[in-house]
Amino acid sequence: MTEQVLLLLPPEGQNWSSLETYRAHDGYRGAEKALREMEPAKIVDEVKSSGLRGRGGAGFSTGTKWTFLPKDGRRPRYIACNADESEPGTFKDRQILERNPHKLIEGLLIAAYANEIDAAYVYMRGEYRSAFENLNRAIAEARSAGYLGKNILGTNLAFDIFVHRGAGAYICGEETGLMESLEGRKGQPRKRPPFPAVSGLWRQPTTINNVETMSHVPHIVLRGADWFKGIGTEKSTGTTIFGVSGDVVRPGTFELPLGTPLREIIFEHAGGLHPNRTLKAVIPGGVSMPVLTAEMAMQVAMDHDSLQKAGTLLGTGAIIVMDDRACMVRAAMVIARFFRHESCGQCTQCREGTGWLHKLMQGLEAGHGTKRDLEAIDEVAKFMEGHTICALADAAAWGTGWFLRRFRSEFEAHVEHRGCPLEGVSFEV
Ligand SMILES: Cc1cc2nc3c(=O)[nH]c(=O)nc-3n(C[C@H](O)[C@H](O)[C@H](O)COP(=O)(O)O)c2cc1C
Ligand code: SF4
Questions:
Q1: Cα(397)–Cα(380) distance, integer angstroms
Q2: Ligand 1 — pocket residues by CB below 6 A?
């Protein structure tokens, strides 16, 4: 069994949120090295060559993203740190915020020094009460200890972090929706260009990075890009926190190297299925990502390339396991309902498409779906993909359309039986 490699999570459920405990575990040594011994450009190079890819869903190279910030000295410039974590099935950032918040603060501090950033705004999911308290307490401690504020670690760096709470809208996790919300408006995504690196928060240069992504920066700087590249696969380096939920004996978070087989995560780390059950389907990266059949899931490794080859994506690494009791039409209907509710309504394809997908799935589930409805689901999903301001429409199309494509016979059985042919359906709503 692959050993857990704990770079982000304290072992055995420990909590390192006090400065004293964090410092006792190499805390702020990466920041000290960065600010005292390294040029800013060298840090950007190091993060780029470490192969670190964003953990917020899209998997884009973090170091490359930082190079998009303009070199014209325009100030102020910001980090928008994405702690919205609203993708269903995803609960990994929460673990860092609650149990290791100084790791995030240290990552943001190094990123600020490397990119001439003046302030970071952490946009946090509103329901994360203890995460909010722990992070704010840690920020206050870091300020008192001279890691935030003016003349940080005796240098002329001035930088601070502010935490903002969301109010329960999934779309505020989309990077430009998040910026609109932070600025006090409705969280409706912006058209691009201009891109946030050039015109982001308050139209100033902004880099947007996820909590887990930023929390990897301190150990990359402290131990070097080559060490980080030694964990994971060639194109998916380092560890990630897999969140496993659904029909497993031991749901939870597991920090493992990227590239760990999905079979191993489900059957060893998460304790396997309940007695006498068989695996039916797995969503590997949050409900936006195409579902896999059991057969596909048993062969795939959890890294960007392997999942793409298998016809899905890593997303947030949130693994949702469904056993033989789960109805695929009901699962797709619940997901379609979520996206319909969360569409911000700006784009016709998304506003109307999410509504149609939900209605069609509801009809099938209730027993009055037709064969023509199955064609319509496919047509609507295709009509939604690739034509909208943000990726929520694609997510809705993938998250539901692939249930039909990969479990077609079960959808057809709903038409023939005029309802669900399964007994003891377990997919909770
Ligand atoms: C509808 C939607 C919701 C999103 N929600 C989140 C979220 O809750 N947290 C997050 O980090 N990224 C989320 N993203 C991705 C962000 O737009 C952005 O790519 C990410 O924060 C960049 O950080 P990274 O490069 O470190 O991954 C979402 C994207 C979309 C389209
Ligand atoms: S795709 Fe959907 S959520 Fe995104 S901007 Fe358009 S309507 Fe809003």
A1: 8
A2: 54-58, 60, 82, 84-87, 170-171, 173-175, 208-210, 213, 390-392
Write 180-187 long-range contacts (CB < 8 A, 24+): 181/123, 182/80, 182/121, 182/123, 186/344, 187/344
What is the predicted pLDDT for the residue at 326?
96
Is any ligand 2 atom within 6 A of the Cβ of residue 355?
no
Q: In CATH, what is the architecture of 239-323?
A: Roll (3.10)
Contacts of 22 (CB under 8 A, 6+ apart): 16, 28, 100, 102, 103, 138
Q: Whose CA is nearest to atom 8 of ligand 1?
A: 85
Nearest CA to ligand 1 atom 22: 209
Report cis status (omega within 30 of 0) of the bond before 76. Answer: yes
Determine whether 428 is exposed, middle or buried from the number of CB atoms within 10 Å of its CB (0-12, 13-18, 19+). exposed
Higher pLDDT, 427 or 362: 362
Q: Which fold, 11-229?
A: Rossmann fold (3.40.50)
Ligand nearest to the CA of 314: 1
Q: What is the DSSP letter of 266?
A: I
- Spatial contact of 343 and 396, defined as CB atoms under 8 Å apart: yes
What pLDDT, on the 0 to 100 scale, is given for residue 422?
82
Query: Quick check: CB of 384 below 6 Å from ligand 2?
Result: no
Q: Where are the domains of the chain?
A: 11-229, 239-323, 328-416
Tell me the best of 55, 87, 93, 213 to mutate to test the pocket of ligand 1, counting ligand atoms within 8 Å of each CB and taking the most.
87
User: Where do runs of H (alpha helix) occur along 84-128?
Assistant: 92-99, 101-115
pLDDT tens by residue, 200-215: 999 999 999 999 999 9
The CATH code that applies to domain 328-416 is 1.20.1440.230
Q: Which atom of ligand 1 is nearest to the CA of 170?
A: 3
Nearest atom in ligand 2 to the alpha carbon of residue 346 is 7
Model confidence at 423, in pLDDT bands (50, 70, 90)?
Answer: low
CA dist 49 and 45 (Å) reads: 6
Digit-coded pLDDT (tens) for 301-315? 999 999 999 999 999
The share of the chain scoring above pLDDT 90, in percent, equals: 96
Identify residue 12 by its one-letter amino acid code.
Answer: E
Between the CA of 403 and the centroid of ligand 1 the distance, in Å, is: 23
Q: Is pLDDT at 49 greater than 70 in this prediction?
A: yes
Q: Is 8 in the pocket of ligand 2 (CB under 6 A)?
A: no
Q: 347-358 pLDDT, tens per residue?
A: 999 999 999 999
Give the mean model confidence (pLDDT) for residues 159-173: 97
